[in-house]
Amino acid sequence: MSNRWLTVYSFLLTGALLGIVMMGAAKPNSPSFDQITVHRINVVEPDGTVRMVIASNAALPGLIVHGKEQPFKRPQAGILFYNDDASEIGGLIFGGHKNASGEVVDSGGSLSFDKYEANQIVQLAGVDDKDDRFSGMIISDSPRASESHRRVWVGRDEAGTASVSLMDAKGRKRIVMQVLQDGSPSIAFLDQNGEVINSISPTTSQ
């Protein structure tokens, strides 16, 4: 009889231990949704430090620096990125709307990345509204929060000119390679005052 009860006890103990192991190996209970409708999602670290915000225009936060928010009007919806110190370091914003008379007043989007506690250093943007019509990539220097100098532009402007512009450390154009809307290509070299000191085109190279 004692051997029989020992066998039963061993079986039950083994089953209990197996159940504990299986429960420990199970994945954490994570809700699953086919669709979710929200105004804003905050992605935070375990200590609550904000790292990313996905929001509608109405719910998008102002400018957050070291976890403190300052009023900053944004006419778009989007995604904002934050560094380890809960300071904004870039984002993806997009929008587009017309006014009462049917005029497009805001249309386009921008993906940007900022230098630590300074301005944008990389931006990919496309805008087509009543004020601006361009699309391209911008690379900038931002030695201080209040200072920024564009160094590289690759894109298309309102006139339909496709160009690559290289600037010096003060943001002055020094080399411009472009193709006009009619197909005319050229390369221009400029001095620090913006004056063309040499140029190359199909006519000058012949």
Describe the structure.
The structure is a single chain. The chain is mainly beta and 206 residues long. It has one domain (2-26, 36-158). The protein is built from 2 helices and 14 strands, in the order αββββββββββββββα. The longest helix has 24 residues, at 2-25.
Uncertain regions spanning at least 5 consecutive residues: none
Beta-strand residue percentage: over 45%
The total count of helices amounts to 2
What order do the strands of the largest sheet run in, or round the barrel if closed? Answer: 1-2-5-6-7-8-9-10-11-12-13-14
Between the first and last Cα atoms, what is the distance in angstroms? 110 Å
List how many beta strands DSSP finds: 14
| Series of secondary-structure elements, N-terminal to C-terminal | HEEEEEEEEEEEEEEH
What is Rg?
Answer: 29 Å
Largest sheet: 12 strands, antiparallel
Helical residues, percent: 10-25%
Can you tell me the overall shape? Answer: elongated
Structural class, from secondary structure content?
Answer: mainly beta
Mean pLDDT: 88
Brief write-up:
It contains two helices and 14 strands; from the N terminus they run αββββββββββββββα.
Features:
206 residues; 12-stranded antiparallel beta sheet
SSE topology:
Layout: H1 2-25, E1 40-44, E2 50-55, E3 63-65, E4 68-70, E5 77-82, E6 88-98, E7 104-114, E8 120-128, E9 133-144, E10 147-156, E11 162-167, E12 173-179, E13 185-190, E14 196-200, H2 202-205
Antiparallel strand pairs: 1-2, 2-5, 3-4, 5-6, 6-7, 7-8, 8-9, 9-10, 10-11, 11-12, 12-13, 13-14
